[in-house]
Design goal:
alpha/beta; Rossmann fold; Arc Repressor Mutant, subunit A; 3 domains; 42% helix; elongated
Amino acid sequence: MDTSLTQHQARLIFNGLPHIGPIMFRRLMNAFDNNGIALLNTDKNTLIQTHGVGPKLASFLNDWKLHFNLSREEILLKQRNTRFITLDCSDYPKLLREIYDRPIGLYWKGEFTIDRPCVAIVGTRKATLYGLSVAKSFAADLASLGFCVVSGMARGIDTAAHEGALSVGSKTIAVQGCGLDIVYPPENLNLYEKIIDEGAVISEFCFGRRIDRTTFPMRNRIVSGMCEAVIVIESNCSGGSMITARFAGEQCRDLMVVPGRIDQVTSAGCLQLLRDGAILVTSVDDVLEELRYSRPQNTAVCLPNPESKDDAVSISKAEQVVLKCFSGGEILSPDKIAEHVKKSSAQVASTLMSLELKRQLVKRSDGRFEVNQ
């Protein structure tokens, strides 16, 4: 028997072993009186007699050193200033302990430990400017009121949520779907570093684990599991936010949705969630009411008005005609705008450029335009 292992090391090993998920881990630990060291040192024949353990899994556990390099992982934890937090640690998120498939452990980078209620803000990667503005506004106000904003650091709504919390100098936690030695998406490196300084970046995956189709849903259950509520801002019907919303329902978390336009793909998932009984919220005060918290000051932060513009900007008649095409919050291509205003594409192109310079419109990556919030 290898008596040099500690229980903490045993959990680090189980967390890094493929084929040993949280549910199998719980089953094994229950069979061995929560003694990971004994489990790793048990012979193959005894393991096979354990309920749910077949010959392949028994051989796999006996030969764990072939599948996980413990000394390397411990060196990386030290080099990267990262902690490995298990259920035995007081820093393990309280609400996350309650879920059935809670992580075996969490890699935790950052000095912040949860000392306040957490709320998740999630949404599509292909967000509109309106959605990004709402996410930042909600996150900033919730953070300033004493909440920790949790999200997945993905492009779009997730990034805006983290940025909103950081903008008021408050705490935010990013849950990664890969090892903490990998920054995903890579363009969020600066955001990753800022979050570590002000909050924490966490993951259940060992160093070197790259993103695949299974890691995002696993990440999403942690996002919802550690929070009192999940707020969805813009999501299509097949987006990852819908998976997070499903987990929120299974984990008995409050699921809140900011409504969107009925003719936009980015709102389809939100509208579906509302039809299915999610809580509609249009301000942070709605969130506070649902969570039974009181606002310390008598001010409300509502959704930004798409029609609100800087009165000091001079807008020509031709520009006013083009802007009217966006009065309902539409996202339009230049050809569609030309069709609406009954002008040539060349004439519309010059007007669009002028409106961009005046910060009235913004050109999206897909070539379409929308109102600048």
